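pipeline/complex-builder :: batch 7 item 3
reading input block
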Amino acid sequence: MIRDLILKNRSYRRFYQEVDIKLETLRELVDLARHSASAMNAQPLKYILSCEREKNSLIFRHLTFGAYLTGWPGPSEGERPSAYIIILADTETSRFVDYDAGIAAQTIMLGATEKGLGGCIIANIQKEGLRKDLEVPPRYEILLVLALGKPKEKVVIETVGPSGDTKYWRDSKGVHHVPKRPLDDIIISYIKAERESRALCHAILFGPSAAR
Amino acid sequence: MIRDLILKNRSYRRFYQEVDIKLETLRELVDLARHSASAMNAQPLKYILSCEREKNSLIFRHLTFGAYLTGWPGPSEGERPSAYIIILADTETSRFVDYDAGIAAQTIMLGATEKGLGGCIIANIQKEGLRKDLEVPPRYEILLVLALGKPKEKVVIETVGPSGDTKYWRDSKGVHHVPKRPLDDIIISYIKAERESRALCHAILFGPSAAR
């Protein structure tokens, strides 16, 4: 069931760094993205893969892991990602790239989850530094970095409370809590029904003939 | 296997319109998106659902189905989508919405594919007309429309030819052909290796001591 995979696919930021990920695994994941939808089928996305220690360190230092976890500088040595997939846009191909990148990122993360891996889609990137270190030609825009590894933390989903605060947080036992909005808060489908119920309330309060 | 689902999840534009989709099915699909990643966990996306004939027609007329299929005005009555999920951004919540929308769209389409449905992620929308007809408040920006139904066409994936043309096309039997770039064309991972091979070529051409 895709639902099980989606629920299992959480954002992880700490890993068993000693568990290697093969280049072939990364290629299989990109191949899933390759077979996914692209605006006007233009396929402007390109990918940089990394699963070697040296290249991984080069990438790691340009990333921010979990902006809300104040005081936490990101995963320490030994708990860092084993691999990265960097999603780039070929600016000479198409300007419609952001939806494509979201589609590709989710596809790759679901594929990784199925393989017993996990990770985090990172947009908080020091792009110019990363470009310089990896010698990325100006033609390619860095969009997202997918950090991948064997997850070493527990993530639980909760419901957003009355305060409306959606910030994730980590408890004293290191469990990561993620508040999600309830389903009925994100569906605004019943526009007509809502309008009618508002009209009804108005009539009850002010009488059926009151101007609206 | 997620790969099977991803391969099955093609962009479909003609449907068995008589096959209804229940509101509960649409809610289940949005619930999958609800459990997916969101930048800074801000969850700015909202959804409008439609599976009724009248509302579907209202949405349909603001959409362009398959811009490359010149001379085809979109699916005719009887082959139109049975349902829609409109993805909106709550502009008061976050400005990072496009990756979220791509993630949500792919999640929903994979969920729909598993249910034997299919459809098309549409960004080519006459947004102001749609906003007016559905009375969408200015607070919400219309991002994508997901058209859903029971697919009534065959879609095949091919490899992009030497011309580099990525336009999809429909043959005389109505089969829809989609050229995808080869995996090795979209991975630019081997930057260091490429640099070294360029240096080697340079040395072969101009001698090992030539200035580079």
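note: Chain B is about 35% helix and 20% strand.
queue -> next item
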